[in-house]
Amino acid sequence: MTTLLTINTGSTSVKLALFALEGGGAPAERARERHDGGEFDPRQILTALAAKLAEPPQMIVHRIVHGGTRFSQPTLVNSEVLAAIEALTPLAPLHNPTAVRWVRAALEVFGRDTRQLAVFDTAYFAQLPRVAAEYALPLAVGVAHGVRRYGFHGLAHESLWRKWCALYPRLPAGGRLITLQLGGGCSIAALERGRPLDTSMGFSPLEGLVMATRCGDLDPAVLPYLERELALSGDAVVELLEKRAGLAGLSGTKAGPAELFASPEPQHRFAVELYCYRIRKYLGAYIAVLGGCDGIVFGGGVGEHVPAVRAASLQGLGFLGVLIDASRNEAARGAETRISCDDAPIKVHVLTSDEEAMLATAGAALLRDAL
Asked: Are 106 and 242 contained in the same domain?
């Protein structure tokens, strides 16, 4: 039996999944495991997994957050590709180095005979329209140096779009859809028949929505100002914005959105209100980008499990056709369901993004082509 192992590394977690290929159908999931906390020994975890397997997987598929302009398709990993992924570390400092460690650990544990495939989160957004992809910089400073909006969470957004299409097959390729991936990192995308027209994350995963520890949109003049005021290097300021800002920085706690909504502390409530305000602001903008909207989908740990975030983010959008059924929304805690009113012009759903299935599909396509 042909098997695939997927490795999905985040900034503070890693998810492993084993899939089997049987005939020409979709990869069949066999097992999953998740490790949280951020301090992992990849070699130890993979060695323990290998001991449970009758034979090594035929392919290991890795989620790589940043592929730059070079990687817009799934790519077999060799030493040159691995070096190129590592060179993109300044653009995704929380993610690419971690992924590289897991690639090297998998090479040690499973050997060179097991092929490794890199699938890039940026690839889904590689063909963003120029008006969405480029910054208003001189060409010699911007495009010539790869300074553009790359977009991230591509696997999650594509997964949400595919699930939406299955629910509404009469909408050509899903119609006009807005997808939200809300977890530790947060992003939103405007999709027209599956084609991304815009997305909130940009040159790095720091841009866009407020996140667990990332600030999201920020006037760039703040960076040199903080360098002077705090006597920090530029890299130290960026690290502050990546790891000590966002909800954590505003609230002064590590609490998630659900806990912040429940807290009596005014600053805690303000933090989560700002978080939802930024989502609402982007929703309005993306409905304008799409020229209307058929649906909105919430995914990710927060998007799937925190009704208060969905309610606050959609508040006041009734004039656009976003009408939420409060009881449905409150009941939707991890279940895939519709939360909008039956007669609402814009349908709103909670769906589970499945990055592992997307990784397995990419790996299966390559393996079948090789058979």
From this structure: no
What are the pLDDT digits (tens) for 49-62?
Answer: 999 998 999 999 99
Residue 92: per-residue pLDDT: 81
Nearest to 181 by CA among 300, 63, 90, 83: 300
The answer to whether residues 187 and 305 belong to one domain is yes
Task: State whether 114 and 173 are in the same domain.
Answer: no
First to last CA, the chain: 13
Nearest-5° Cα angle at 208, 102 to 333 = 75
User: Domain span at residue 22?
Assistant: 2-120
Q: Shortest CA distance to 65 belongs to which of 214, 203, 160?
A: 203
Give the residue ranges of the chain where pLDDT is below 70. 11, 38, 370-371
Reading the block at residue 237, the tokens are 């300021």
Residue 150: inside a domain, yes or no? no
pLDDT digits (tens, 9 = 90+) for 28-38: 989 999 988 76
Does residue 341 lie in a domain region? Answer: yes
Closest by CA to 203, choosing from 250, 142, 247, 117, is 142
294 catalytic residue (yes or no): no
Catalytic residue among 113, 121, 294, 343: 121
Predicted local distance difference test score (pLDDT) of residue 22: 81
* The pLDDT value given to residue 371: 53
| Total domains present in the chain | 2
Q: How far is CA 365 from the centre of its chain?
A: 22
Q: Are residues 241 and 335 in the same domain?
A: yes
Element (H, E) at 21: strand 13-21
Element (H, E) at 282: helix 266-290
pLDDT value for 38? 66
Same domain for 115 and 193, yes or no, is no
32: domain CATH number? 3.30.420.40
Decide if 130 is inside a domain: no
Closest CA to 318 of 283, 291, 289: 283
